[in-house]
Amino acid sequence: MSQSDKPDPRHGPPVLIVTGASRGIGAACARAGARAGYRVVVNYSSSRDAALAVVADIEKVGGSAIAIRADVSRPDAVEELFAQSDVHFGKVTALINNAGIGGAIQPLEDMRPEALEALFRTNVYACVHCCSAAIRRMAPRHGGSGGVIVNISSAAARLGGLPGMVAYAASKGAIDSLTTGLAKEVGAQGIRVVGIRPGIIETDILEPMGGSTLVHTVAPSIPLGRVGQPEEIADAAIWLLGPQASYVHGTTIDVTGGR
Fold it and tell me: Lesser CB count within 10 Å: N end or C end of the chain?
């Protein structure tokens, strides 16, 4: 096959990058994105086998996906992630910023500076780096045709977090502000920016907080009487990416069961 005969990755189904997509909400978003017709980049930091399993799930149902390792808290790794996506699938048209950590569960006064830095690098800086890289591909002045960015925040941003998670709540508050401000900055360029605040979702991020014990303790206080599932966040995210949400911009929606 000559160079001119090779398929051009710039043409074909739209491209979705999901950060932190090897498990939990991110994995659910990747699978849902594939069902919606996206070619999906499954980003992971260390859980290679889990990321490859998500890719395999997508391919089993006829979708197209690739797993790319990148620590998105590092700007050089973000650039490499997006560059590899460019090569494999073409320019990104949709981004779900999901990568995040719960951080140390302790009073703020006891949190060590390095733990605080790691929390904000993963939960805030990573989101900023990825938004920047996406805009440089989506914006018409860079040859793009627009796109959608969905930032995964948390109900902790408005509730202050569970006990010992004040810093985590603050990091998610930053994401809410980023969503609001960035929407004003790039809306005229055909880029929608929206967010989701999940409530308590049954994923392994709950394990340090008690896992199933926490679920059973907190569930009765939730108006719907239960915790959420990753797929419920994913369905909301994919809706926000789609044309049905074409006038939803600069806002963060709660998916919390009423909490």
Answer: N
Q: CA 217: distance to chain centroid?
A: 27
CATH top-level class of 11-254: alpha beta
pLDDT of amino acid 211:
59
Residue 86 near residue 142, CB atoms below 8 Å: no
Given a contact cutoff of 8 angstroms between Cβ atoms, the answer to whether 139 and 186 are in contact is yes
Residues 170/110, Cβ–Cβ less than 8 Å: no
Rounded distance, CA 238 to CA 14, Å? Answer: 13
What's the pLDDT score for residue 215?
Answer: 67
Contact between 51 and 22 under an 8 Å Cβ cutoff? The reply is: yes
Domain definitions of the chain by residue range: 11-254
23: DSSP letter: S
- What pLDDT shows up at residue 3? 39
Beta bridge mates, 150? 96, 194
Catalytic annotation present for 44:
no
Q: pLDDT tens, 238-249?
A: 999 999 999 999
Q: Which residues of 79-89 are buried (b: 16+ CB within 10 A; e: fewer)?
A: ebbbebbeeeb
Catalytic residue (choose from 38, 125, 168, 247): 168
